[in-house]
Amino acid sequence: MTSTQEKITVTRDELFAHLNTTVAQFIELYQHIPNPEAVQVDAWTAKNVLCHVTFWHESFARNVRDLVNDIPPRPLKGRYADLNQQCFAEMDPLPIETILQRFSNAQDTIRANVFNPKLTLIPYKKGSRDYTPEEHLYIVTEHVQDHLQTIKKIISRRKA
Fold first, then answer.
1. CA-based diameter of the chain, in Å?
2. What is the mean pLDDT of the chain?
3. Sign of the four-CA dihedral 76, 80, 82, 88
4. Whole-angstrom Cα distance, residue 82 to residue 88?
5. CA dist 59 → 47, 124, 146 (Å)
6. What is the number of other CB atoms lying within 10 angstroms of the CB of residue 147?
7. Which positions ≥6 away from 20 have C-beta within 8 Å?
8. How sure is the predictor about 10, in pLDDT bands with cuts at 50, 70 and 90?
9. Which of 28, 101, 102, 108 has the most crowded Cβ, counting Cβ within 10 A?
C-alpha cells in the first residue's frame, strides 16, 4: 500500500463531502477579497493561486468525465513550472468571477462523475501514476485546503 492509501480511512462519500466543503470555503473567501491581484502569496498573487487551483481542478474534472464516458483521458503533460505558466497565460486575463465560475463548474463535473463505478483509476499527470478516486479526492482536497489556509493567514495578517 502507498502512503496515500494508508492515510485514507474514510469513504468516497466522505472524501467528496470534505472536498465540496473546502471548495465552497475557497470560493467564498475569494468572493470577499477586494483585489486578489494585490494580495501577495509568496511569488504569486492570490489571483495566480486561484488560476492554479482552477487549472488543476479542471484537469481532474476532465479526466473523470472522460473516463466515465469511455473517452481516453488527456492528463496534463509537462513540468509543473511550465504547466503553471500555461495556466497563468490562459487564465490571468480573465476576471475573478469567470475563474470562480470555472472552478465551480469543475466541481460540478467532479460531483456528477466521481461516484460512477466505471471510475477505478484516474490519471493525474503524464509520467505520474494513476490514483484511485479516493486517493485523488484526498490529494485534491489537501491541495485546495493548503492554498485556502495560506491565503486566510495572509488576509488575516493584512487586517491586523
1. 52
2. 93
3. positive
4. 10
5. 18, 8, 18
6. 20
7. 107, 111
8. confident
9. 102
